[in-house]
Write a structure and sequence with these properties.
Elements lengths: L2 H18 L4 H15 L4 H36 L2 H13 L4 H14 L4 H19 L6 H10 L1 H4 L6 H10 L7 H28 L15 H4 L10 H17 L4 H15 L7 H32 L3 H12 L4 H16 L2 H18 L4 H12 L9 H10 L3 H28 L3
Keywords: Membrane, Transmembrane, Transmembrane helix
Organism: Frisingicoccus caecimuris
GO molecular function: gluconate transmembrane transporter activity
């Protein structure tokens, strides 16, 4: 392995270690970028101005509106109680059975419908906590169940309004339902495998005597955290579902841009549930919160894409790409590996896809593979190594759930790295059949 590639490996490790220490991405990305610049013998200021900032600003230009309307939709669904209404209704159907898989299903439905994963974290956690308590199931499975619903099948399923799907569409000119037959097969396989894993793990924990009241956990719950308002007035389930269905129909049926589709969902949700937020000033506060959330989210992602903009200009990156090409691997395997590596380096599926497509779109096209297949395998692969322990979303969720990596990360690893990689190969097999 040459020195240039070693620099990139060291940068990846450094990125992961510093992120694990919960250093903000706005500080972390420039620091690791400067490390790469210095070690690669590039001019510091020129590289920051001509590679780092253009890559970051191009990402903001391309995807700000997607983040903006998505964050508005999430804020509306959180403060009107619509997300909680959907969650409680679906949770009531399981009647104490398949608790962890049901939580995964609920979060997936919400995120497939356009609700931000970070909003879902806060909405679903208290509901999951109550369901796990009633089923006497260990809290260790909650983070895996919630995040698996947010960041796997609902993220890369055909027709999803996720930013990852949009990146594939914009980069390759492919539809939201690209490679629909193998996509559906891989998405369903992902869901089934995660469902089975979570249920199997829940039964295994219970059999070992590890239940809800687990005194071995580092952080114990307070009585206040255990309480839930069962009589809380929430919107009707079907009313809450209308804007989500409208987004999916507008996006996939009428082929409207995702920004327009989600904006229509925001407008429809606001009209249908206007009385759920008390007064115009309260609504302004909801929209202000959503707008602020969108700014933080896109900056954290764009700044990481800026890091990738510098990486792609290094000799080490060029050598790595050439090395992978010499292995004579199938085109879709090449796409899978490169996108997964970028996602792992960024600790972000959307950031990783942004880096990969910014650097390698022409290479992907030159491989001669069906572009719809490239779109979908890239979207699935982005949801693999992004979930390494340094991922900001996982750290946030573990904090919300009051659990440590040692206590809960294993199930995150299986459901969001191992199973998505299996799904990648399932997709490749069926795509190779010409489906």
């Amino acid at each position: 392995m040459n020195l240039g590639i070693l620099v990139l490996v060291a940068a990846l490790i450094l990125f992961g270690l510093l992120a694990f220490k919960q250093i903000n991405a706005l500080i972390l990305a420039p620091l690791v970028t400067i490390f790469v610049i210095v070690c690669s013998g590039l001019p510091i200021l020129e590289s920051l101005k001509t590679a780092f900032m253009p890559a970051a600003s191009d990402y903001v230009t391309s995807y700000f509106l997607v983040f903006f309307v998505g964050a508005l939709f999430g804020a509306v669904y959180q403060h009107t109680g619509a997300a909680e209404s959907i969650s409680k209704t679906l949770a009531g159907l399981c009647k104490g059975k398949f608790v962890a898989p049901i939580i995964m299903t609920i979060t997936g439905i919400l995120t497939y419908g356009g609700v931000s994963g970070f909003v879902v974290f806060f909405v679903i956690y208290p509901i999951a906590l109550n369901m796990f308590k009633e089923a006497n199931l260990t809290r260790r499975l909650i983070p895996g169940a919630i995040s698996a619903g947010c960041w796997t099948w609902s993220m890369y399923g055909p027709g999803s309004p996720s930013i990852q799907n949009v990146i594939g569409m914009n980069s390759l000119g492919t539809p939201s339902t690209a490679a629909i037959v193998p996509s559906v097969i891989a998405t369903v396989a992902t869901y089934i495998l995660i469902f089975v894993w979570l249920e199997m793990r829940g039964r295994s924990f219970t059999k070992k005597g590890i239940t809800f009241n687990d005194t071995t956990l580092k952080f114990q719950l307070s009585p206040e955290e255990m309480a839930m308002d069962e009589d809380k007035d929430l919107p009707n389930f079907w009313i809450a579902m209308i804007p989500i269905v409208a987004i999916l129909v507008a996006f996939n049926g009428f082929k409207l841009p995702v920004e327009t589709a989600v904006f229509l969902g925001v407008a429809l949700a606001t009209i249908l549930m206007w009385n759920r937020v008390k007064g115009l000033n309260a609504w302004i506060a909801v929209f202000n919160e959503g707008a602020a959330n969108s700014g933080v989210s896109i900056l954290n992602t764009a700044i990481v894409v800026g890091f990738g903009g510098v990486v792609k200009n290094t000799q080490g990156f060029a050598d790595l790409v050439e090395l992978l090409k010499t292995l004579n691997m199938p085109a879709l395997v090449f796409v899978m590996i490169t996108v997964a590596i970028c996602a792992g380096a960024c600790g972000s599926a959307s950031g990783g896809m942004g880096v990969a497509f910014n650097a390698l779109t022409d290479t992907y096209i030159e491989l001669g593979a069906n572009l719809e297949h490239v779109h979908r395998i890239a979207t699935i692969a982005a949801g693999t190594l992004d979930s390494l322990p340094h991922q900001g979303a996982q750290i946030t969720l573990l904090g919300i759930c009051k659990l440590t990596h040692k206590e809960a990360y294993f199930d995150i690893f299986v459901t969001q790295i191992v199973i998505p990689f299996i799904s990648c190969f399932i997709f490749i097999i069926f795509a190779s059949m010409g489906l």
